[in-house]
Amino acid sequence: MNTSIPYQQNPYNPRGSSNVIQCYRCGDTCKGEVVRVHNNHFHIRCFTCQVCGCGLAQSGFFFKNQEYICTQDYQQLYGTRCDSCRDFITGEVISALGRTYHPKCFVCSLCRKPFPIGDKVTFSGKECVCQTCSQSMTSSKPIKIRGPSRESSPPAPPCPQALPPGAPLSSLC
């Protein structure tokens, strides 16, 4: 983020040269108070956000794609939203599994406690889970395993011990 401070253009030119400073925005000659940003000069009234038109001379701004943009519009256009609270992120950011978070929002989705720095995080489908909760999620119950559907499976090879027609299955044992 940039800030600018208006300064008074010196009307006295000791060399007598005719260096005329023109406003970068409107092209008119700058007289009196001007703002200089990135070697461009502006009338204070001309130094405005390219999106909403608010004055930038007394506030913070961003410069992107050759445009001066106020903080609010910059966030709307280019800002990063927290994947938890959906507010814009300014300052520190945590990136995990292609998602971004405020440090205060990067918490275990089960116990809601923040993740200790350097600790492992378990991703369970859609959520991030701490090690303690991850261990409690593992179950000793048997898991039902489903095989591929019959439509997509090739036919099974014939059994080497074929049953004679009408014989009970117990005869294989």
TrEMBL record:
Signal peptide boundaries: none
Give all residue intervals belonging to the LIM zinc-binding domain. 21-80, 81-140
Which GO MF terms does the UniProt record name?
actin filament binding; metal ion binding
Tell me the segments the record calls region Disordered.
139-173
Query: In what ranges is there compositional bias, type Pro residues?
Result: 154-167
Give the record's GO CC terms.
Answer: stress fiber
| UniProt name for this protein | Actin binding LIM protein family member 3
State the organism named in the record.
Answer: Rousettus aegyptiacus (Egyptian fruit bat)
